[in-house]
Amino acid sequence: MTLLGWIVVKWQYKKNMGKDLKKEITNQELLDSVNRSFSNLEKKISTKDEMRDFRNEMETRLDRIENILIAGHDRRIEKIEDDLRLIKTKLAFQS
Fold first, then answer.
1. Which of 3-7, 67-71, 72-76, 90-94 is the least confident region?
2. What is this structure's pTM?
3. C-alpha–C-alpha distance, residues 89 and 91, integer Å
4. What is each CA distance from 85 to 24, 63, 73, 80, in whole angstroms?
């Protein structure tokens, strides 16, 4: 018996624990159980890939937003610096 087969049998045993185990597991039931396990595994793998893609898309969007905000702040700082230079120039002429 393979490791996977043993795990499935053990799982079936735990699932049915406390119930009458008069019925033995047939090879077909065991095969179906193993197939379901692999099917679920495939779904989990695709879900992980989808989550990785989603995370990458979100990082790209957040980077873009961050760059837009930084550019806006840079423009505001430059405008404030220009205004401050203008004020200093006017005060220098008044002295």
1. 3-7
2. 0.43
3. 5
4. 89, 33, 18, 9
CA–CA distances in Å: residue 26 to residues 23, 30, 76, 82 = 9, 6, 74, 84
Q: Are 34 and 5 in contact (CB under 8 A)?
A: yes
Pairwise CA distance, residues 89 & 87, whole Å: 5
- Single-letter residue type at 2: T
Name residues whose C-beta falls within 8 Å of residue 1's C-beta, 6 or more positions apart in sequence: 9
Kindly write down the DSSP assignment for every residue of 2-50, as one continuous string: -HHHHHHHHHHHHHHTTS---SPPPHHHHHHHHHHHHHHHHHHHHHHHH
Domain range annotation of the chain: 49-95
